[in-house]
User: Which sequence fits this backbone?
């Protein structure tokens, strides 16, 4: 078997305004190329400790258990489910887009029973339906929902749902992949129990890591499991020994350089300040919205439930989805997102996440769209 | 909750001669910082196709299913087990170090029954014991073993074990985390069925990805499972749709920049040539061995079973483990590995992996050791 003729890959310089990855801050890209050190090196452990502290700030929590999982957001989701769901557990799952459906799949693969609360795609989760489900299923142990649905751009009221869940003695699993750093997210104030996110959205880091935070209630349930966590790689008990700077018990080998990138992204966030980051996303969203209005393009999600960082637009009648996106990519090096699942071909998703949420991107995107349409 | 005062992290420049990560080639570090593009971008898909082709070369296989898992080697291990083991399956697991033990843990968490074949730490797996176990367990479906034990530096004869397994109608799961690109590994010629590896050893890429290759026999077993794969993230059926350039069905978001790094590492390997890479590891190992002899330091593994890329040394009587490693790190910026598990405190592990396998590292390590001891 011969080696073949391959050359270094030099990617084009795109403008990333899809559902993620977002444009990565050049400081983060530079951090990725810093010299690799060992994962048990005292300097690395110091970096990990800072990273955990900065993640606590981003999540607005004091949870001791706040770490990045060494794998993408979908593994963060699975980490929450495999640790908290035991075979036979009833889990109420809110479905208003692709990621709610994926949660159902996770519950079932853990041997749990998923009770589905459905809402239309493009709308927030309806607390009244959730309360009805909680009432109808007194044995339910967990309520799972997506804070910011990346497939549609709908923002759900996490504080209200968490309060309901606790009223009915349920823990919450909350997907904050797209919300972290883009809209207010207050893990402690809202008492969210097990929360996972991603790095490639409003943190403007590369994809491949999943920050998670688990509170005492969640950790108590995990420590009192009757069965072992089915995943060795995602077992929180093992992961904690690894991320404890004092113990540093070998589990896996952490992805050193991507963690440099996340560290830098969090330094940038702490310099800007969370509130300023939320405000910037909102400001740029309003600018985009004004431009879309002028172009006669309509947002799918009604105003109060709209995410600033993910703008789902109805594709106008008579316009073909793929050729428009192809032209934006080929001619303008501009990526916007297609619809996912049942909304494929029906909508575009314009992301304004992290470093991508700036005036240059907004004006460029509007001009390019105008020319292409 | 305030932002705290954090600054960019600038790691020291270490020389990495532990069990991994190894020194990363500067070309790989540079590749990491290239501009991020979308994971559905046609340019990215082209890069993925090249990556798969180059991995086939590294593994010496024509297996269609040859991809990097978006998580570290331990997730590659789990991917092999969750896909191939169904509840109730008997799996013969060879244990001659830490990673065999981890395989047992994986079998059990999949609901399988592990039949353990034990060999002393620091020795290869004994084919006679394996044959006895295969004979005694006619219902066994899988034989799992580690080609190159990172915890001890022992090389096992994978071709012989695979032939035995097939004779007794078993599939093989083979850990090649430390062997890939460091010693001969011929997946097709040896008929290994499900094989996983890591990127941070002899490929000299960063940690965080796990190349795997599955042959037709393995894929047939997966496609005929009676139960769903318990992990959504690691389900090969879903992953294949994602890594198929034609379909590119959304599964997770691939870690874009680390994959640039792996692509570059594989370009470097194809430039050098596999045989040359194997020979270089052997040459540097012999140079190290000669120097260790002069220092009176003894290798743990007997000659024919010795890995060139991982040299386990008995800590001399009267010498304290930790202070020596600390001095090497603090004064010489040189990392060597400690013993793992039952060999903690008894041995050091000197890695000569990938970019670390060069004369400068060997001579530097020997001089530093001489000074410190």
Assistant:
């Amino acid at each position: 078997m011969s080696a073949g003729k391959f050359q270094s890959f030099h990617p084009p310089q795109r403008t990333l305004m899809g559902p993620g990855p977002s444009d990565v801050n050049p400081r983060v890209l530079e951090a990725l190329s810093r010299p690799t050190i060992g994962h048990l090196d005292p300097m690395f452990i110091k970096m990990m400790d800072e990273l955990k502290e900065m993640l606590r700030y981003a999540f607005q929590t004091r949870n001791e258990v706040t770490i990045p999982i060494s794998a993408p957001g979908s593994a963060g989701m699975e980490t929450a489910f495999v640790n908290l769901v035991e075979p036979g557990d009833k889990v109420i799952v809110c479905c208003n887009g692709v990621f709610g459906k994926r949660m159902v799949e996770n519950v079932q693969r853990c041997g749990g029973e998923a009770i589905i609360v459905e809402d239309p795609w493009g709308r927030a989760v309806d607390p009244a339906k959730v309360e009805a489900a909680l009432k109808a299923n007194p044995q339910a142990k967990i309520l799972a929902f997506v804070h910011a649905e990346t497939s549609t751009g709908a923002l759900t009221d996490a504080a209200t749902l968490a309060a309901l869940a606790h009223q009915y003695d349920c823990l919450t699993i909350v997907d904050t992949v797209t919300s972290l750093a883009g809209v207010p997210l207050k893990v402690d104030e809202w008492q969210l129990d097990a929360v996972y996110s991603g790095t490639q959205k409003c943190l403007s880091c590369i994809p491949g890591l999943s920050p998670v935070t688990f509170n005492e209630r969640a950790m108590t349930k995990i420590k009192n499991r009757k069965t072992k966590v089915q995943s060795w790689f995602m077992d929180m008990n093992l992961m904690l020994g690894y991320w404890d700077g004092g113990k540093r018990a070998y589990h896996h080998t952490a992805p050193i350089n991507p963690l440099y990138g996340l560290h830098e992204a969090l330094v940038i966030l702490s310099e800007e300040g969370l509130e300023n980051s939320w405000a910037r996303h909102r400001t740029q969203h309003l600018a985009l919205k004004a431009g879309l209005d002028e172009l006669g393009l309509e947002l799918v999600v009604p105003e109060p439930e709209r995410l600033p960082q993910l703008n789902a637009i109805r594709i106008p009648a008579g316009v073909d989805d793929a050729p428009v996106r192809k032209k934006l990519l080929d001619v303008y090096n501009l990526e916007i997102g297609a619809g996912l699942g049942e909304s494929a071909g029906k909508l575009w998703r314009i992301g304004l996440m992290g470093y991508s949420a700036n005036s240059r991107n907004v004006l460029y995107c509007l001009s390019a769209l105008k020319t292409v349409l």
Remarks:
- The mean pLDDT of chain A is 96.
- Chain A touches chain B through 94 residues (CB under 8 Å).
- Chain A is about 40% helix and 15% strand.
- Residues 15-21+274-372 of chain A form a domain with the Aspartate Aminotransferase, domain 1 fold (CATH 3.90.1150.10).
